[in-house]
Amino acid sequence: MNVLAAIPSPTQGVWELGPFPIRAYALCIIAGIVAAILITQRRWVARGGASEDVLDIAVWAVPFGIVGGRLYHVISSPDPYFGEGGDPLRAFAIWEGGLGIWGAIALGAVGAWIACRRRGIPLPAFGDALAPGLLVAQAIGRLGNWFNNELYGGPTDLPWALTIYEWTGTRAVVGPAGEPVVLGTFHPTFLYELLWNLAAAAVVVWADRRFRLSHGRAFALYVALYCAGRFWIELLRTDPAETIFGVRLNVYTAVVVGLLAAAYMVWQRGRPREVITRGRDAADTAASRDHAAPAVAPGTEGPGDGEEPGEGPRRRHEET
Question: How much is the pLDDT for 306?
Fold first, then answer.
């Protein structure tokens, strides 16, 4: 096995900037969120929405999503926290990595629903604009797993095998010779998912343009495609996870959620694309403007009874 021919992994995932730790995992998550917001803004405006809607909704959806992602991770991989020798307090150490996408999407959707309701925006329409950006965000986020030397598959000597080091939690263990201790080369499942997500994002964009998907169908397509990829990638992973009858919990989740997404697409087929009204704030502004407009009696022509706007008040002032 030629380790030098394999894909290298970083030997450090955290850098100290004075008293502040700079964590690659966190930077990747933040970069993914920014990318999702920018892509969604472009798609939402193209659908008739207001650009500021996206940031307002993100303020609700992102914190909810982070909490949901962490909850799912802890539930699906409980041993490091509640197993023998585990530390329950580490369940709150989100900076160490560990976010389950299923929980992030589920609880993030709750936050998005609250924000959409406040702005008078239909959640399915916003989800359609969001779908490709989410996939790109997930792809960028997977780079955090690379920095942490985690979520790899079984051993392999394929040309794209991934070098994995013995890890302390923040950096590679250094041997007596001063070199990082290599555990071996493994399937880079983080890379498989990254590439799958980018390909799925392209498919969603193409299908949305080709078939003018609406009423949540673009979002459902995202879910179905992601689940299809996650199903086979999950079968390659070897990291600790909760299992049912010897099969990882995430495999069952991918099957159930993917089938539900496919069923939703069939259920909603043929519906025309929604007309976006630019949110509740725009509607309130328009209503206030209409309410404040002066009433004009039938047969009259405006402020000066037939004169140019503004001419009547000026003439009255001159005559006073």
Answer: 41
- Least Cα distance to 197 among 110, 135, 288 occurs for 135
Ranked by mean pLDDT, the top range of 84-93, 95-104, 169-178, 274-283 is: 169-178
Q: Which two tokens stand for residue 202?
A: 């392209």
Q: Residue 32 in contact with residue 137, Cβ under 8 Å?
A: yes
Q: Which residues of 26-52 are buried (b: 16+ CB within 10 A; e: fewer)?
A: bebbeebbebbbebbbebbbebebbee
Map 26-61 to HEC letters.
HHHHHHHHHHHHHHHHHHHHHCCCCHHHHHHHHHHH
**Could you tell me the sign of the dihedral formed by the alpha carbons of 281, 285, 290, 291, in that order?**
positive
Which residue is associated with the tokens 């089938």? 259
Helices (H), 155-278: 189-211, 217-236, 249-267
Say if residues 262 and 224 touch (Cβ distance below 8 Å). Answer: yes
Q: Which amino acid is at 320?
A: T
Look at residue 277 in the predicted model and tell me its pLDDT.
66
- Who's near 54: CB < 8 A, 6+ residues apart? 37, 40, 41, 44
What are the boundaries of each domain within the chain? 26-174+187-281
294 contacts: CB under 8 Å, gap ≥ 6: none
pLDDT tens digit string along 187-209? Answer: 999 999 999 999 999 999 999 99
**pTM for this model (two decimals):** 0.82
What average pLDDT does the segment 29-36 reach? Answer: 97
